[in-house]
From TrEMBL:
Family matches, as SMART domains: GAF
Organism: Pedobacter steynii
Domain GAF: 237-393
InterPro entries: GAF (IPR003018), GAF-like_dom_sf (IPR029016)
Name of the protein in its database record: GAF domain-containing protein
Domain of life: Bacteria
Entries under Pfam families matching the protein: GAF
Amino acid sequence: MTLLSFQDSPFTVKLSFDKYIGTIATSTQENHRELLKEVAQYPELRTGMTELSVIEEHQELISRLLADFFPRGLSLNEIKAVSIPYTETIFNHTDRFKAILKAAGDSFQINIRGFDEHQFYVLSCCLILNQYYGTKLDFGKPLFYDIPMQNGVAKHYRIMYNADYLEVEPTENVVKLSQEEIDLLINSYDDLELWREKFPSGSWILKGFALMTLFDATIENAVSIFKEKLLKLKANDFQTSIESIFQSIYRIPDLQVGITLYHPAEHKFGITTIGEPVKSFILPDRQQRVDQDVLCPNSYRRIVEQKASVVISDSLKFQESEPDNILANRFLAQGIKSFILMPIVKNETLLGVLEVVSPRSKDFNSINVNKLEEVVPFLTDTIERLISELQNQVQVVIQEKFTTIHPSVYWKFHAEAQRLIYDRQLGFDATVREIIFPEVYPLYGQVDIKGSSEARNHSIQQDFRTQLNGITFILDQMTAPLSFENSQKEKRSIEAFLKELSFPLQASTEQHISTYIETIIHPLFREARTPALLPLIQHYFLSTNEETGDFHTSRRRYENTISQINEEMAKILDHSQIRAQQIFPHYYERFKTDGIEHNLYIGSSISPGLNFDFEKLHELRLWQLRTLMQMEIAHNRLKAGLPYPLDVTTLLLSYHSAITIRFRMDEKRFDVDGSYNARFEIAKKRIDKANIKNTTERITASGKVTIVYSNDSEEQEYLRHIHTLSAEGLLTAETEHLEVEDLVGLSGLKAFRVKIIHSAS
């Protein structure tokens, strides 16, 4: 049998004691001199052994040779052996090491935790890089053995290697590495084939031996694993995982763990749900109960009032002293003979109780309870987070299943989310019901930025002209890598683009120019090496920065214009909404595009606790018209200071009938329900581009508000509103009566158009 755990390795391993024998060769000690004479009879101890059978032949001599490393007085204390690093080749164990392996059983095979062939190969190569090529790679990481005790509970041991007596030697098959290849390897850990290429199998000799020492890291390792498990709360094996951790800490194979939450506001204990319900020995029936109904007076005082632990070493004796003790009787009924109840406390608030229980008496006491101090702080943070998650479950469901919900309709989403969570906790196959609001009246309005598309195209054209002229200037200075013929060719391309930019911008022009610059010009500039050109090219690339560069100046001015207008309009609308909600609570949503659009839906189904009447609808329509006037007046004041002095048009759409709105789960938004109600959506999407009937003139115009309606009652209502706002100095008294051209799927609409008094305050 070979000395390697993995078949594939850059090493041919030779177990040799040559280096150590050399260190004791000069010793004057009589026992060393006698030992060296005996060793000299077996040259393979120095030249190297490659088979385990040979090692076993010399086991007794090797043990005496390495006696200085293995003092007899420490053999029952130290966990130590001779090894080849990262392999299963281990021999010359101390007595304690032998006892640990014997307890693990004959079928136990010792393996490094999580150590695979990839790691073995790469770490072996790193050893070569450090010892032969002089790199200083820090490739060490904590390595562990998980070794079960006789009762089956695993203990965790950290591995430490002393490789002072290992040497790395090349064979004739070695691949010599350059510094560039070493650098490539260092940054290619995951590329196993590359490592195998540079360090072929068996191309190096690993000669010598290593001393391996194990340290019992069970508690530290258990805490580390516990922290890892707490990060994976939703795992299906959470209960089993944490119990195995506590079993390692206490070395009790049938130890069990429970966690019970505490709700201080209600003075109740409740079940912890982490993926699935966690055991609770305080609440075996999983029903919430008042704290004083589940704790005896003494345990209530200790846990709830003093925030201190309760440790019962012998439940039977506890019951004998207090026969009517509800806590003792409950735990004994579950077969628990010894237990710890440790409060989980954060900022002097009791969050829950950690329960560690055993079926045997005297497994726990006031001394070993202190072991929990290592893990409880991590559990405390987790329980605090869990409680916060529980408190926010309704909001989480709303965000997951719905969207950011307007306060006016939040009550209905809250009720549905609460029903969903409750059904899930009871194990029902719960699905989300549709959220529908019937019989609501819609109001739609917009302040649209006029000529925004033309302004955007103009800004793009200006920026491209600046950039193309800059490119031409640099091309005139270039002599390499561009030939004269190619230089002239690129100048002709640029001239063609500049000519194209003198006409209205086409949809494809922007993409064509951008692609040309990125794929033709920029590679040329990056290849330039002429010293005189480098400052020009550096300045050119700085100018391409979208946030600060000269080649995006006009587009930034355009975007800044749109942003300023939208921000001012949105601020006025949102602020005015506070007053509108006081008229009657209604659903409100706002959108920013090239301007501001908004939808309002009002009706008794949205606020079932209030009495809705048409006076509320009329009042809200007046509010909407007044707010749109205020938005346009604010824009008029803002316009003079804008980078692009763009105008706006204002439109309001009245709809005579109540409609039904439905929350669309796939799009996370409300939409009208039914084909008949869809007429309102059609009108919204098409009305701002509509013309006056039998003309080519748009129904919207700068400086005027357009009110679109469909019947006589709406006409009379809005005439009253116009009169009111004229008296307030927001509108003129003159009103244009218009007919709207027939739209696809929509006809018979009418409109008012009224001039806005921009000087109004």
